[in-house]
């Protein structure tokens, strides 16, 4: 009981440690913060206020939406109140019976606020209205109507930009939870599965990766985040992928690969992070976006392969079974890339064409052996 509890605590702490050391989370968020930025540099975010608002969280955008509308209504209400005050329209000024007001129905600050709201939102209940006896009121209602139309367009554009953000389309692109290392087409490959959950295509999709690790140079300098290019490909190539169904990405582990020196025993002891990127353009919205995920050594399984997920139904349609999307099965794999390329390639082949998949010791009939 105590041993089981302690092992769970260690596993939980290990998972928290791994999540803290990630530069990119599994969902694609970057784990980085900036410090000691000069105060004057913050004005750059104000100057580029549109990008700042679009990238802000929804709660801040809605706070800005409600606050700015309420503030503008109140500021224009003060102008209407000041205009009614100068014209003697307020109730405490005791206007005469034949007094010609500047705005009908405005006799205090509350009614001035209601008239400002009705003017800017074009509600027009019919109780309050500007009169032709006050040229300043006609000018002010024109200014507020133009300002209200402009600000409504601005806020509608902000909401639409946040709703149609390419990040939302990226939510329907998913990667497998684990990566696997197994033989593929005569090569030792690191494989990752990716799927498009929508039927709409991703145009011009490109896949590539970066291996992030700490490296010490010959000059004694320590590079905290050293980036190494990782090339991925599928059976159809690596450019302009036909991304209509889930496919598996393959990185060939050869002498030029940073995984070449790793083995099945030392892989999980390494300290690196494999970040995978997918760039593409959504067919329905023509918006370009990037989807990211990352894998740490504990999320790479040596000697495993993914289960097949594509089949053909009875009505001649292709069916994708996502229940097997991240499921793997063990396969026979060499313990290292060196063994795979140097030892397995020199294994004797049956000269008589016997299929010996079970690695069983069998007797070969000498009459079937071809004499050279």
From TrEMBL:
Spans through the membrane: 60-83, 138-161
Record-annotated site: Role in the control of polyamine-mediated channel gating and in the blocking by intracellular magnesium: 152
Keywords noted in UniProt: Ion channel, Ion transport, Membrane, Potassium, Potassium transport, Transmembrane, Transmembrane helix, Transport, Voltage-gated channel
UniProt key word Ion transport: yes
Localization in the cell: Membrane
InterPro entries (UniProt xref): Ig_E-set (IPR014756), IRK_C (IPR041647), K_chnl_inward-rec_Kir (IPR016449), K_chnl_inward-rec_Kir1.1 (IPR003268), K_chnl_inward-rec_Kir_cyto (IPR013518), Kir_TM (IPR040445)
GO biological process, one term: potassium ion import across plasma membrane
Top-level taxon in the UniProt lineage: Eukaryota
Pfam family, one: IRK
Residue span, Inward rectifier potassium channel C-terminal domain: 173-339
Lipid bilayer topology: Multi-pass membrane protein
First-listed, main subcellular location of the protein, grouped into a coarse class: membrane
One of the record's GO molecular function terms: ATP-activated inward rectifier potassium channel activity
Keyword Ion transport part of the UniProt annotation: yes
GO cellular component, one term: plasma membrane
Domain Potassium channel inwardly rectifying transmembrane: 24-166
Catalytic activity: K(+)(in) = K(+)(out)
Family assignment from sequence similarity: Belongs to the inward rectifier-type potassium channel (TC 1.A.2.1) family.
Record's protein name: ATP-sensitive inward rectifier potassium channel 1
Source organism (scientific name): Channa striata
């Amino acid at each position: 009981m105590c041993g089981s509890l302690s092992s769970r605590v260690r596993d939980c702490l290990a998972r928290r440690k791994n999540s803290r050391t990630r530069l990119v989370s599994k969902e694609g968020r970057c784990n980085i913060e900036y410090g000691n930025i000069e105060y004057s540099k913050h004005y750059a975010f104000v100057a580029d206020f549109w990008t700042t608002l679009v990238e802000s969280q929804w709660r801040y955008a809605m706070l800005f939406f409600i606050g700015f509308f309420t503030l503008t209504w109140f500021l224009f209400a003060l102008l209407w109140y000041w205009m009614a005050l100068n014209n003697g329209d307020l109730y405490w000024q005791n206007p005469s019976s034949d007094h010609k007001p500047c705005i009908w129905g405005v006799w205090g600050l509350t009614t001035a606020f209601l008239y400002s709201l009705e003017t800017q939102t074009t509600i027009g209940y019919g109780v309050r209205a500007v009169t032709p006896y006050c040229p300043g009121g006609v000018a002010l209602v024109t200014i507020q109507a133009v300002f209200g139309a402009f600000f409504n367009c601005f806020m509608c554009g902000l909401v639409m930009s946040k709703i149609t953000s390419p990040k939302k389309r990226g939510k329907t692109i998913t990667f497998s939870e684990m990566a696997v290392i197994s033989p593929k087409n005569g090569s030792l490959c690191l494989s990752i599965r990716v799927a498009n959950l929508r039927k709409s295509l991703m145009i011009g999709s490109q896949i590539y990766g970066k291996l992030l690790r700490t490296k010490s140079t010959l000059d004694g300098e320590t590079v905290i985040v050293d980036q190494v290019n990782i090339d991925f490909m599928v059976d159809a190539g690596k450019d302009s992928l036909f991304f209509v169904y889930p496919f598996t990405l393959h990185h060939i582990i050869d002498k030029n690969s940073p995984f070449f020196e790793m083995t099945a025993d030392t892989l999980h002891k390494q300290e690196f992070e494999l970040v995978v990127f997918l760039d593409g353009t959504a067919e329905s919205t023509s918006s370009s976006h990037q989807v990211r995920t990352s894998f740490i050594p504990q999320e790479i399984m040596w000697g495993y392969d993914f289960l097949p997920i594509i089949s053909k139904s009875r009505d001649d349609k292709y069916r994708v079974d996502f229940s097997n999307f991240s499921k793997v099965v063990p396969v026979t794999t060499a313990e290292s890339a060196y063994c795979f390329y140097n030892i397995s390639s020199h294994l004797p082949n049956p000269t008589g064409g016997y299929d010996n998949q079970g690695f069983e010791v069998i007797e070969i009939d000498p009459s079937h052996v071809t004499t050279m």
